[in-house]
Amino acid sequence: MNRPRLRAWLVVTATALLLLVTLAFGVYVYLTGDEPDLPISAESGREYFRHRSFGSPFETGIPFALVLASLERFPDELGRDRDAFCAKFGTLIDPGSPSSLPVGFAVRSDQLSGTEFLMTNCSLCHTAELNGKLIDGLGNRNLRLNALNQAVMRVAARPEFNAATMVPASAAAAKRRGIPWGWRAAWATEAAIGVLKKLYPANSAGPMGGLKSVDAGPGRNTPVEFGKEASGVPVAPPYGLTKLPVVWTYGRRESFSCDGSLKGDKAFALAAVEFNKKMPVPAILARAARWESVYAYLKSLVPPAYPAPIDEPLAERGRAVFQENCSYCHGTYGPGRPVHYRERIVPLDVVGTDPDRLHAVSPELVAARARGAFARKVQLEISKGYVPPPLDGIWCRGPYLHNGSVPTIVDLLRAPEDRPESFYNGGDTGYDLARLGLPYDEETRPDGRRIGRRGSDRQFLFDTRGKGNSNAGHEFGVDLDDDDKRSLLEYLKQL
Ligand code: HEC
Ligand code: HEC
Questions:
Q1: Closest CA to 250 of 207, 204, 299
Q2: What's the pLDDT band for 179 if we cut at 50, 70, 90?
Q3: How far apart are the C-alpha atoms of 128 and 141, rounded to whole Å?
Q4: Is 326 in the pocket of ligand 2 (CB under 6 A)?
Q5: Is residue 351 within 8 Å of residue 473, measured between CB atoms?
Q6: C-alpha distances in Å from residue 12, one per residue of 17, 21, 23, 244
Q7: So what's the pLDDT on residue 18?
Q8: Residue 20 confidence class, pLDDT cut points 50, 70, 90
Q9: Which is the closest atom of ligand 2 to the Cα of 386?
Q10: Among candidates 268, 298, 267, which has minimal Cα distance to 281?
Q11: Which ligand lies nearest the alpha carbon of 476?
Q12: Which of 44, 137, 213, 340 is deepest in the core (most CB within 10 A)?
Protein backbone atom coordinates (compact mmCIF):
# COMPACT_ATOMS: atom_id res chain seq x y z
CA MET A 1 0.00 0.00 0.00
CA ASN A 2 1.45 3.39 -0.92
CA ARG A 3 1.50 6.27 1.52
CA PRO A 4 -1.41 8.41 0.26
CA ARG A 5 -3.64 5.32 0.06
CA LEU A 6 -2.61 4.26 3.54
CA ARG A 7 -3.40 7.71 4.84
CA ALA A 8 -6.80 7.77 3.12
CA TRP A 9 -7.53 4.32 4.51
CA LEU A 10 -6.54 5.41 8.01
CA VAL A 11 -8.69 8.53 7.79
CA VAL A 12 -11.70 6.51 6.62
CA THR A 13 -11.23 3.93 9.36
CA ALA A 14 -10.71 6.54 12.01
CA THR A 15 -13.80 8.47 10.87
CA ALA A 16 -15.86 5.26 10.79
CA LEU A 17 -14.63 4.36 14.27
CA LEU A 18 -15.38 7.82 15.57
CA LEU A 19 -18.87 7.67 14.07
CA LEU A 20 -19.40 4.28 15.63
CA VAL A 21 -18.24 5.44 19.04
CA THR A 22 -20.44 8.56 18.79
CA LEU A 23 -23.39 6.42 17.75
CA ALA A 24 -22.79 3.95 20.57
CA PHE A 25 -22.47 6.85 23.00
CA GLY A 26 -25.71 8.34 21.67
CA VAL A 27 -27.55 5.04 22.09
CA TYR A 28 -26.07 4.65 25.55
CA VAL A 29 -27.13 8.18 26.51
CA TYR A 30 -30.61 7.58 25.09
CA LEU A 31 -31.05 4.35 26.98
CA THR A 32 -29.43 5.09 30.28
CA GLY A 33 -29.60 8.85 30.45
CA ASP A 34 -25.81 8.65 30.58
CA GLU A 35 -25.43 8.72 34.36
CA PRO A 36 -24.23 5.31 35.48
CA ASP A 37 -26.79 3.53 37.71
CA LEU A 38 -26.14 3.61 41.44
CA PRO A 39 -25.75 0.15 43.00
CA ILE A 40 -29.15 -1.43 43.73
CA SER A 41 -30.03 -0.57 47.34
CA ALA A 42 -32.56 1.29 49.45
CA GLU A 43 -30.08 4.17 49.89
CA SER A 44 -29.74 4.53 46.12
CA GLY A 45 -33.52 4.37 45.94
CA ARG A 46 -33.75 7.29 48.34
CA GLU A 47 -31.39 9.27 46.09
CA TYR A 48 -33.64 8.73 43.08
CA PHE A 49 -36.88 9.20 45.01
CA ARG A 50 -35.83 12.40 46.68
CA HIS A 51 -32.80 14.02 45.05
CA ARG A 52 -32.15 12.77 41.52
CA SER A 53 -34.19 12.21 38.43
CA PHE A 54 -34.70 9.16 36.29
CA GLY A 55 -33.18 10.60 33.12
CA SER A 56 -34.52 11.22 29.58
CA PRO A 57 -34.33 14.98 30.08
CA PHE A 58 -35.51 15.80 26.56
CA GLU A 59 -38.76 13.94 27.11
CA THR A 60 -39.36 14.47 30.83
CA GLY A 61 -37.62 17.76 31.66
CA ILE A 62 -37.49 21.44 30.70
CA PRO A 63 -34.21 23.41 30.26
CA PHE A 64 -33.55 24.96 33.68
CA ALA A 65 -32.69 28.39 32.29
CA LEU A 66 -35.99 28.41 30.38
CA VAL A 67 -37.85 27.67 33.62
CA LEU A 68 -36.11 30.55 35.41
CA ALA A 69 -36.78 32.92 32.51
CA SER A 70 -40.45 31.85 32.50
CA LEU A 71 -40.80 32.56 36.25
CA GLU A 72 -39.50 36.07 35.60
CA ARG A 73 -41.63 36.69 32.53
CA PHE A 74 -44.90 35.15 33.74
CA PRO A 75 -45.01 35.77 37.51
CA ASP A 76 -48.83 35.96 37.47
CA GLU A 77 -48.95 32.35 36.27
CA LEU A 78 -45.95 30.75 37.95
CA GLY A 79 -45.00 32.97 40.88
CA ARG A 80 -42.04 35.30 40.65
CA ASP A 81 -39.52 33.17 42.51
CA ARG A 82 -39.15 29.86 44.29
CA ASP A 83 -41.08 30.85 47.40
CA ALA A 84 -43.95 32.38 45.48
CA PHE A 85 -44.04 29.26 43.31
CA CYS A 86 -44.19 27.04 46.42
CA ALA A 87 -46.99 29.10 47.98
CA LYS A 88 -48.99 28.94 44.76
CA PHE A 89 -48.67 25.24 44.06
CA GLY A 90 -48.06 23.69 47.50
CA THR A 91 -44.52 22.43 46.83
CA LEU A 92 -42.21 22.16 49.83
CA ILE A 93 -38.80 23.49 50.83
CA ASP A 94 -36.26 21.20 52.46
CA PRO A 95 -34.03 23.44 54.61
CA GLY A 96 -31.49 20.61 54.93
CA SER A 97 -31.10 20.01 51.20
CA PRO A 98 -27.94 21.17 49.40
CA SER A 99 -30.11 22.20 46.46
CA SER A 100 -32.23 25.32 46.77
CA LEU A 101 -34.95 23.81 44.60
CA PRO A 102 -38.38 22.88 45.97
CA VAL A 103 -38.77 19.24 47.09
CA GLY A 104 -39.45 17.00 44.09
CA PHE A 105 -37.32 18.94 41.61
CA ALA A 106 -33.80 18.08 40.48
CA VAL A 107 -31.42 19.63 37.99
CA ARG A 108 -29.89 17.18 35.59
CA SER A 109 -27.12 18.16 33.24
CA ASP A 110 -27.32 16.49 29.88
CA GLN A 111 -23.90 15.69 28.41
CA LEU A 112 -25.12 15.44 24.85
CA SER A 113 -26.58 18.95 24.70
CA GLY A 114 -24.50 20.59 27.43
CA THR A 115 -27.78 21.76 28.94
CA GLU A 116 -29.15 21.66 32.48
CA PHE A 117 -32.69 20.39 32.64
CA LEU A 118 -35.21 20.77 35.47
CA MET A 119 -36.72 17.38 36.24
CA THR A 120 -39.16 16.01 38.81
CA ASN A 121 -38.91 12.94 41.01
CA CYS A 122 -41.16 10.88 43.29
CA SER A 123 -40.98 13.29 46.23
CA LEU A 124 -42.88 15.97 44.32
CA CYS A 125 -46.03 13.97 45.06
CA HIS A 126 -45.01 11.41 47.70
CA THR A 127 -43.16 13.54 50.28
CA ALA A 128 -45.22 15.63 52.69
CA GLU A 129 -44.71 17.91 55.64
CA LEU A 130 -46.07 16.78 58.98
CA ASN A 131 -45.40 18.63 62.24
CA GLY A 132 -42.58 20.55 60.60
CA LYS A 133 -40.82 17.41 59.30
CA LEU A 134 -40.60 16.12 55.77
CA ILE A 135 -41.90 12.58 55.54
CA ASP A 136 -40.96 10.46 52.51
CA GLY A 137 -43.78 8.18 51.45
CA LEU A 138 -46.67 10.39 52.58
CA GLY A 139 -48.72 12.08 49.83
CA ASN A 140 -48.35 15.87 49.74
CA ARG A 141 -51.81 17.11 50.83
CA ASN A 142 -51.09 20.63 49.64
CA LEU A 143 -49.72 19.98 46.17
CA ARG A 144 -51.82 21.52 43.40
CA LEU A 145 -50.55 19.51 40.51
CA ASN A 146 -53.33 20.12 37.98
CA ALA A 147 -53.10 23.85 38.68
CA LEU A 148 -49.35 23.74 38.01
CA ASN A 149 -49.86 21.74 34.84
CA GLN A 150 -52.52 24.18 33.63
CA ALA A 151 -50.31 27.18 34.39
CA VAL A 152 -47.55 25.62 32.26
CA MET A 153 -50.08 25.02 29.46
CA ARG A 154 -51.27 28.61 29.55
CA VAL A 155 -47.73 29.99 29.54
CA ALA A 156 -46.74 27.79 26.60
CA ALA A 157 -49.81 28.90 24.66
CA ARG A 158 -49.06 32.61 25.08
CA PRO A 159 -47.81 34.36 21.93
CA GLU A 160 -44.99 36.04 23.94
CA PHE A 161 -43.70 32.58 24.80
CA ASN A 162 -41.65 31.97 21.67
CA ALA A 163 -38.06 31.23 20.70
CA ALA A 164 -37.33 34.83 19.70
CA THR A 165 -38.07 36.12 23.20
CA MET A 166 -37.45 33.14 25.44
CA VAL A 167 -34.07 31.94 24.12
CA PRO A 168 -32.34 35.29 24.87
CA ALA A 169 -34.24 35.53 28.18
CA SER A 170 -33.01 32.02 29.05
CA ALA A 171 -29.44 32.98 28.10
CA ALA A 172 -29.66 36.00 30.40
CA ALA A 173 -31.13 33.90 33.24
CA ALA A 174 -28.37 31.31 32.75
CA LYS A 175 -25.70 33.99 32.96
CA ARG A 176 -27.15 35.52 36.13
CA ARG A 177 -27.43 32.13 37.82
CA GLY A 178 -24.12 30.68 36.65
CA ILE A 179 -25.82 27.96 34.58
CA PRO A 180 -23.70 26.61 31.71
CA TRP A 181 -24.85 28.07 28.40
CA GLY A 182 -23.68 27.76 24.81
CA TRP A 183 -24.99 27.14 21.30
CA ARG A 184 -26.11 23.62 22.24
CA ALA A 185 -28.10 24.90 25.22
CA ALA A 186 -29.65 27.58 22.99
CA TRP A 187 -30.55 24.89 20.49
CA ALA A 188 -32.02 22.59 23.19
CA THR A 189 -34.02 25.50 24.62
CA GLU A 190 -35.41 26.41 21.21
CA ALA A 191 -36.33 22.75 20.64
CA ALA A 192 -38.05 22.58 24.06
CA ILE A 193 -40.07 25.72 23.29
CA GLY A 194 -41.15 24.12 20.00
CA VAL A 195 -42.28 20.96 21.80
CA LEU A 196 -44.19 22.90 24.47
CA LYS A 197 -45.91 25.03 21.84
CA LYS A 198 -46.90 21.94 19.89
CA LEU A 199 -48.21 20.21 23.02
CA TYR A 200 -50.18 23.23 24.22
CA PRO A 201 -51.23 25.33 21.23
CA ALA A 202 -53.30 28.47 21.78
CA ASN A 203 -56.95 28.46 20.70
CA SER A 204 -57.22 24.73 20.25
CA ALA A 205 -57.67 21.68 22.32
CA GLY A 206 -54.20 20.34 21.43
CA PRO A 207 -52.94 16.92 22.40
CA MET A 208 -53.15 17.77 26.12
CA GLY A 209 -56.39 19.66 25.72
CA GLY A 210 -58.45 17.14 27.64
CA LEU A 211 -56.51 17.97 30.78
CA LYS A 212 -57.29 21.66 30.55
CA SER A 213 -60.62 21.38 32.30
CA VAL A 214 -59.66 18.93 35.05
CA ASP A 215 -58.56 20.23 38.44
CA ALA A 216 -58.45 17.74 41.26
CA GLY A 217 -57.44 20.44 43.77
CA PRO A 218 -54.82 20.14 46.52
CA GLY A 219 -53.43 16.71 47.41
CA ARG A 220 -54.99 14.98 44.42
CA ASN A 221 -54.17 14.29 40.82
CA THR A 222 -55.65 12.71 37.72
CA PRO A 223 -53.29 9.77 37.09
CA VAL A 224 -55.58 7.92 34.68
CA GLU A 225 -56.08 11.03 32.55
CA PHE A 226 -52.31 11.58 32.33
CA GLY A 227 -52.04 7.90 31.37
CA LYS A 228 -54.65 8.37 28.64
CA GLU A 229 -52.84 11.41 27.36
CA ALA A 230 -49.54 9.51 27.21
CA SER A 231 -51.20 6.58 25.45
CA GLY A 232 -52.99 8.63 22.80
CA VAL A 233 -56.45 7.89 24.22
CA PRO A 234 -58.84 10.86 24.32
CA VAL A 235 -59.30 12.30 27.79
CA ALA A 236 -63.01 12.23 28.65
CA PRO A 237 -65.18 11.93 31.77
CA PRO A 238 -65.46 10.27 34.18
CA TYR A 239 -62.23 11.68 35.57
CA GLY A 240 -60.27 9.67 38.14
CA LEU A 241 -59.59 12.26 40.84
CA THR A 242 -57.15 10.45 43.11
CA LYS A 243 -55.48 11.35 46.37
CA LEU A 244 -51.67 11.35 46.30
CA PRO A 245 -51.34 8.16 48.29
CA VAL A 246 -48.90 6.83 50.86
CA VAL A 247 -46.34 4.49 49.36
CA TRP A 248 -44.79 2.85 52.44
CA THR A 249 -47.55 0.25 52.08
CA TYR A 250 -46.50 -0.78 48.58
CA GLY A 251 -44.18 -3.58 49.71
CA ARG A 252 -47.18 -5.57 50.88
CA ARG A 253 -49.34 -4.81 47.89
CA GLU A 254 -49.75 -7.15 44.93
CA SER A 255 -50.85 -4.46 42.50
CA PHE A 256 -50.29 -0.75 41.97
CA SER A 257 -53.06 1.85 42.38
CA CYS A 258 -56.22 2.16 44.46
CA ASP A 259 -58.32 -0.08 42.24
CA GLY A 260 -55.61 -2.71 41.80
CA SER A 261 -55.71 -2.21 38.03
CA LEU A 262 -51.96 -2.18 37.36
CA LYS A 263 -50.37 -5.61 37.72
CA GLY A 264 -47.11 -7.31 36.90
CA ASP A 265 -43.53 -6.45 37.82
CA LYS A 266 -43.77 -4.38 41.00
CA ALA A 267 -40.48 -2.55 40.46
CA PHE A 268 -41.22 -1.60 36.83
CA ALA A 269 -44.73 -0.47 37.85
CA LEU A 270 -42.97 2.38 39.70
CA ALA A 271 -42.15 3.84 36.28
CA ALA A 272 -45.86 4.66 35.85
CA VAL A 273 -45.43 8.40 36.25
CA GLU A 274 -42.32 8.56 34.03
CA PHE A 275 -44.30 6.61 31.41
CA ASN A 276 -47.07 9.19 31.72
CA LYS A 277 -44.46 11.91 31.26
CA LYS A 278 -43.51 10.17 27.99
CA MET A 279 -40.19 8.63 28.99
CA PRO A 280 -39.48 6.33 25.99
CA VAL A 281 -40.17 2.66 26.76
CA PRO A 282 -36.62 1.50 25.82
CA ALA A 283 -35.32 4.01 28.37
CA ILE A 284 -37.75 2.74 31.03
CA LEU A 285 -36.68 -0.85 30.33
CA ALA A 286 -32.98 0.08 30.49
CA ARG A 287 -33.42 1.53 33.97
CA ALA A 288 -34.32 -1.71 35.77
CA ALA A 289 -31.70 -1.02 38.46
CA ARG A 290 -33.26 2.33 39.31
CA TRP A 291 -36.79 0.93 39.73
CA GLU A 292 -35.35 -1.90 41.85
CA SER A 293 -33.58 0.61 44.09
CA VAL A 294 -36.69 2.74 44.50
CA TYR A 295 -38.73 -0.36 45.27
CA ALA A 296 -36.17 -1.30 47.95
CA TYR A 297 -36.45 2.23 49.37
CA LEU A 298 -40.26 2.05 49.52
CA LYS A 299 -39.99 -1.26 51.38
CA SER A 300 -37.58 0.30 53.88
CA LEU A 301 -39.91 3.18 54.77
CA VAL A 302 -41.71 3.13 58.12
CA PRO A 303 -44.59 5.46 58.92
CA PRO A 304 -44.03 8.15 61.55
CA ALA A 305 -45.21 7.30 65.07
CA TYR A 306 -48.26 9.09 66.45
CA PRO A 307 -46.66 12.05 68.25
CA ALA A 308 -48.90 12.30 71.34
CA PRO A 309 -49.61 9.91 74.24
CA ILE A 310 -51.80 6.87 73.51
CA ASP A 311 -54.20 5.40 76.08
CA GLU A 312 -52.87 1.83 75.90
CA PRO A 313 -55.73 -0.03 77.66
CA LEU A 314 -58.28 1.81 75.49
CA ALA A 315 -56.26 0.98 72.36
CA GLU A 316 -56.11 -2.68 73.44
CA ARG A 317 -59.92 -2.75 73.58
CA GLY A 318 -59.89 -1.11 70.15
CA ARG A 319 -57.76 -3.93 68.80
CA ALA A 320 -60.65 -6.35 69.44
CA VAL A 321 -63.12 -3.99 67.74
CA PHE A 322 -60.76 -3.76 64.78
CA GLN A 323 -60.30 -7.49 64.54
CA GLU A 324 -64.02 -8.03 64.54
CA ASN A 325 -64.97 -5.29 62.08
CA CYS A 326 -62.01 -4.38 59.94
CA SER A 327 -59.37 -7.14 59.82
CA TYR A 328 -61.26 -9.18 57.30
CA CYS A 329 -60.38 -6.61 54.66
CA HIS A 330 -57.49 -4.61 56.10
CA GLY A 331 -55.40 -7.35 57.75
CA THR A 332 -54.07 -7.76 61.27
CA TYR A 333 -51.40 -5.56 62.80
CA GLY A 334 -48.75 -6.16 65.41
CA PRO A 335 -47.06 -3.42 67.40
CA GLY A 336 -46.30 -1.02 64.62
CA ARG A 337 -45.99 -3.57 61.81
CA PRO A 338 -48.67 -5.61 60.03
CA VAL A 339 -48.72 -9.24 60.92
CA HIS A 340 -50.88 -10.30 58.07
CA TYR A 341 -52.27 -8.58 55.00
CA ARG A 342 -53.55 -10.13 51.82
CA GLU A 343 -54.61 -7.84 49.02
CA ARG A 344 -58.14 -8.22 47.71
CA ILE A 345 -60.48 -6.14 45.62
CA VAL A 346 -63.77 -5.19 47.25
CA PRO A 347 -66.47 -4.87 44.57
CA LEU A 348 -67.86 -1.38 44.05
CA ASP A 349 -71.35 -2.35 45.18
CA VAL A 350 -69.94 -3.56 48.50
CA VAL A 351 -67.62 -0.65 49.30
CA GLY A 352 -69.94 1.93 47.69
CA THR A 353 -67.37 4.72 47.40
CA ASP A 354 -67.14 7.12 44.44
CA PRO A 355 -67.15 5.11 41.17
CA ASP A 356 -65.42 7.61 38.87
CA ARG A 357 -61.79 6.63 39.47
CA LEU A 358 -62.69 2.98 38.85
CA HIS A 359 -64.58 3.76 35.66
CA ALA A 360 -61.94 6.18 34.39
CA VAL A 361 -59.90 3.14 33.32
CA SER A 362 -61.64 2.53 30.01
CA PRO A 363 -61.43 -0.41 27.57
CA GLU A 364 -59.69 1.94 25.09
CA LEU A 365 -56.98 2.71 27.62
CA VAL A 366 -56.56 -0.96 28.47
CA ALA A 367 -56.25 -1.78 24.75
CA ALA A 368 -53.70 1.01 24.19
CA ARG A 369 -51.65 -0.11 27.17
CA ALA A 370 -51.65 -3.74 26.01
CA ARG A 371 -49.42 -2.76 23.08
CA GLY A 372 -45.67 -2.28 23.21
CA ALA A 373 -42.79 -3.64 25.20
CA PHE A 374 -43.81 -2.06 28.53
CA ALA A 375 -46.93 -4.26 28.50
CA ARG A 376 -44.68 -7.28 28.93
CA LYS A 377 -43.64 -5.89 32.32
CA VAL A 378 -46.78 -4.16 33.59
CA GLN A 379 -50.37 -4.86 32.59
CA LEU A 380 -53.43 -2.66 32.99
CA GLU A 381 -56.74 -4.40 33.67
CA ILE A 382 -60.25 -3.22 34.34
CA SER A 383 -60.99 -3.73 38.02
CA LYS A 384 -64.33 -4.28 39.72
CA GLY A 385 -63.76 -2.23 42.85
CA TYR A 386 -61.21 -0.77 45.23
CA VAL A 387 -58.41 -2.33 47.27
CA PRO A 388 -58.65 -2.02 51.08
CA PRO A 389 -55.19 -0.55 51.66
CA PRO A 390 -52.85 -1.68 54.43
CA LEU A 391 -53.49 0.75 57.29
CA ASP A 392 -50.03 1.39 58.72
CA GLY A 393 -49.56 5.04 59.56
CA ILE A 394 -53.28 5.57 58.90
CA TRP A 395 -53.41 8.27 61.60
CA CYS A 396 -51.54 10.73 59.34
CA ARG A 397 -53.05 9.79 55.96
CA GLY A 398 -56.11 12.06 55.95
CA PRO A 399 -58.18 13.16 54.14
CA TYR A 400 -59.45 9.62 53.60
CA LEU A 401 -60.63 7.31 50.84
CA HIS A 402 -59.07 7.14 47.40
CA ASN A 403 -60.57 10.52 46.47
CA GLY A 404 -59.79 12.25 49.78
CA SER A 405 -63.46 13.02 50.34
CA VAL A 406 -63.63 12.40 54.10
CA PRO A 407 -61.50 14.80 56.18
CA THR A 408 -61.04 12.70 59.34
CA ILE A 409 -61.28 9.12 60.62
CA VAL A 410 -63.96 10.23 63.08
CA ASP A 411 -66.02 11.30 60.06
CA LEU A 412 -65.30 8.05 58.22
CA LEU A 413 -66.82 6.17 61.17
CA ARG A 414 -70.08 8.12 60.71
CA ALA A 415 -72.87 7.39 58.24
CA PRO A 416 -72.22 9.16 54.90
CA GLU A 417 -75.03 11.69 55.50
CA ASP A 418 -73.32 12.69 58.76
CA ARG A 419 -69.93 13.25 57.12
CA PRO A 420 -69.19 16.89 56.19
CA GLU A 421 -70.84 17.72 52.90
CA SER A 422 -68.13 20.25 52.16
CA PHE A 423 -64.87 21.28 53.76
CA TYR A 424 -61.67 23.09 52.81
CA ASN A 425 -58.34 21.49 51.96
CA GLY A 426 -54.82 22.52 51.02
CA GLY A 427 -53.16 25.64 52.37
CA ASP A 428 -51.15 23.78 54.99
CA THR A 429 -53.38 24.21 58.05
CA GLY A 430 -51.79 21.51 60.20
CA TYR A 431 -53.21 18.16 61.29
CA ASP A 432 -55.91 17.16 63.75
CA LEU A 433 -54.40 14.63 66.16
CA ALA A 434 -57.69 14.02 67.96
CA ARG A 435 -60.05 13.32 65.06
CA LEU A 436 -57.13 12.14 62.88
CA GLY A 437 -57.23 14.11 59.68
CA LEU A 438 -57.66 17.60 58.27
CA PRO A 439 -58.50 20.10 60.99
CA TYR A 440 -61.70 22.07 60.47
CA ASP A 441 -64.20 24.14 62.46
CA GLU A 442 -67.61 22.76 61.92
CA GLU A 443 -70.93 24.31 61.23
CA THR A 444 -74.38 22.74 61.03
CA ARG A 445 -76.57 24.15 58.30
CA PRO A 446 -80.32 24.70 58.81
CA ASP A 447 -80.99 21.46 56.89
CA GLY A 448 -78.91 19.60 59.45
CA ARG A 449 -75.92 18.85 57.18
CA ARG A 450 -72.46 19.38 58.67
CA ILE A 451 -69.91 21.41 56.78
CA GLY A 452 -66.33 22.49 57.54
CA ARG A 453 -65.43 26.17 57.63
CA ARG A 454 -62.54 27.65 55.74
CA GLY A 455 -59.40 27.63 57.91
CA SER A 456 -57.25 30.02 55.86
CA ASP A 457 -57.63 31.98 52.66
CA ARG A 458 -55.15 29.67 51.00
CA GLN A 459 -57.58 26.74 51.32
CA PHE A 460 -59.81 25.31 48.61
CA LEU A 461 -63.40 24.16 48.76
CA PHE A 462 -63.97 20.41 48.59
CA ASP A 463 -67.61 19.87 47.72
CA THR A 464 -68.59 16.23 48.03
CA ARG A 465 -71.51 16.84 45.64
CA GLY A 466 -69.06 17.44 42.79
CA LYS A 467 -68.27 14.75 40.20
CA GLY A 468 -65.68 12.30 41.50
CA ASN A 469 -65.94 13.80 45.00
CA SER A 470 -68.60 11.60 46.58
CA ASN A 471 -68.03 10.78 50.25
CA ALA A 472 -70.51 7.91 50.17
CA GLY A 473 -69.77 4.29 50.98
CA HIS A 474 -67.37 2.49 53.26
CA GLU A 475 -70.09 2.16 55.87
CA PHE A 476 -68.02 -0.29 57.88
CA GLY A 477 -67.99 0.52 61.58
CA VAL A 478 -70.52 3.34 61.32
CA ASP A 479 -72.99 1.50 63.55
CA LEU A 480 -70.52 0.82 66.36
CA ASP A 481 -71.44 2.47 69.68
CA ASP A 482 -69.49 5.49 70.89
CA ASP A 483 -67.29 3.46 73.27
CA ASP A 484 -66.25 1.08 70.51
CA LYS A 485 -65.56 3.97 68.15
CA ARG A 486 -63.40 5.71 70.77
CA SER A 487 -61.34 2.60 71.43
CA LEU A 488 -61.05 1.83 67.70
CA LEU A 489 -59.76 5.36 67.07
CA GLU A 490 -57.16 4.93 69.83
CA TYR A 491 -56.05 1.63 68.30
CA LEU A 492 -55.74 3.17 64.83
CA LYS A 493 -53.26 5.73 66.23
CA GLN A 494 -50.78 2.91 66.85
CA LEU A 495 -50.71 1.37 63.40
C1 HEC B 1 -47.15 13.67 39.73
C2 HEC B 1 -47.35 13.08 41.02
C3 HEC B 1 -46.68 11.74 41.23
C4 HEC B 1 -45.35 11.44 41.07
C5 HEC B 1 -44.23 12.35 40.62
C6 HEC B 1 -45.21 10.06 41.45
N7 HEC B 1 -46.42 9.55 41.83
FE8 HEC B 1 -46.76 7.75 42.60
N9 HEC B 1 -48.76 8.07 42.55
C10 HEC B 1 -49.35 9.27 42.24
C11 HEC B 1 -50.80 9.10 42.25
C12 HEC B 1 -51.84 10.17 41.99
C13 HEC B 1 -51.04 7.76 42.58
C14 HEC B 1 -52.41 7.07 42.73
C15 HEC B 1 -52.66 6.17 41.54
C16 HEC B 1 -54.01 5.50 41.62
O17 HEC B 1 -54.35 4.94 42.66
O18 HEC B 1 -54.70 5.52 40.61
C19 HEC B 1 -49.73 7.14 42.78
C20 HEC B 1 -49.53 5.83 43.14
C21 HEC B 1 -48.31 5.30 43.49
C22 HEC B 1 -48.13 4.01 44.07
C23 HEC B 1 -49.23 3.00 44.38
C24 HEC B 1 -49.78 3.25 45.73
C25 HEC B 1 -51.00 2.42 46.00
O26 HEC B 1 -51.38 2.32 47.17
O27 HEC B 1 -51.62 1.89 45.08
C28 HEC B 1 -46.78 3.84 44.27
C29 HEC B 1 -46.11 2.65 44.90
C30 HEC B 1 -46.14 5.03 43.79
N31 HEC B 1 -47.10 5.90 43.33
C32 HEC B 1 -44.77 5.24 43.78
C33 HEC B 1 -44.16 6.28 43.10
C34 HEC B 1 -42.73 6.36 42.85
C35 HEC B 1 -41.70 5.37 43.32
C36 HEC B 1 -42.53 7.50 42.15
C37 HEC B 1 -41.23 8.00 41.55
C38 HEC B 1 -40.65 7.11 40.59
C39 HEC B 1 -43.82 8.14 41.99
N40 HEC B 1 -44.78 7.36 42.55
C41 HEC B 1 -44.02 9.38 41.39
C42 HEC B 1 -48.69 10.44 41.94
C43 HEC B 1 -47.34 10.54 41.69
C1 HEC C 1 -65.45 -5.24 53.21
C2 HEC C 1 -64.09 -4.72 53.28
C3 HEC C 1 -63.78 -3.62 54.27
C4 HEC C 1 -64.03 -3.59 55.62
C5 HEC C 1 -64.74 -4.64 56.46
C6 HEC C 1 -63.44 -2.38 56.10
N7 HEC C 1 -62.87 -1.68 55.08
FE8 HEC C 1 -61.83 0.04 55.22
N9 HEC C 1 -61.61 0.08 53.22
C10 HEC C 1 -62.06 -0.87 52.35
C11 HEC C 1 -61.82 -0.43 51.00
C12 HEC C 1 -62.16 -1.20 49.73
C13 HEC C 1 -61.23 0.83 51.09
C14 HEC C 1 -60.83 1.76 49.93
C15 HEC C 1 -62.07 2.50 49.50
C16 HEC C 1 -61.81 3.70 48.64
O17 HEC C 1 -60.75 4.32 48.80
O18 HEC C 1 -62.67 4.04 47.84
C19 HEC C 1 -61.10 1.12 52.50
C20 HEC C 1 -60.54 2.29 53.00
C21 HEC C 1 -60.37 2.54 54.35
C22 HEC C 1 -59.72 3.72 54.88
C23 HEC C 1 -59.12 4.85 54.06
C24 HEC C 1 -57.69 4.58 53.73
C25 HEC C 1 -57.01 5.76 53.12
O26 HEC C 1 -55.79 5.69 52.91
O27 HEC C 1 -57.65 6.77 52.82
C28 HEC C 1 -59.75 3.61 56.24
C29 HEC C 1 -59.19 4.59 57.24
C30 HEC C 1 -60.43 2.38 56.55
N31 HEC C 1 -60.79 1.75 55.38
C32 HEC C 1 -60.69 1.95 57.82
C33 HEC C 1 -61.49 0.87 58.12
C34 HEC C 1 -61.90 0.53 59.45
C35 HEC C 1 -61.50 1.27 60.71
C36 HEC C 1 -62.70 -0.56 59.33
C37 HEC C 1 -63.44 -1.27 60.43
C38 HEC C 1 -64.37 -0.48 61.17
C39 HEC C 1 -62.78 -0.90 57.92
N40 HEC C 1 -62.04 0.00 57.21
C41 HEC C 1 -63.47 -1.97 57.41
C42 HEC C 1 -62.64 -2.07 52.67
C43 HEC C 1 -63.06 -2.41 53.94
A1: 299
A2: very high
A3: 7
A4: yes
A5: yes
A6: 8, 14, 16, 57
A7: 62
A8: low
A9: 12
A10: 268
A11: 2
A12: 137
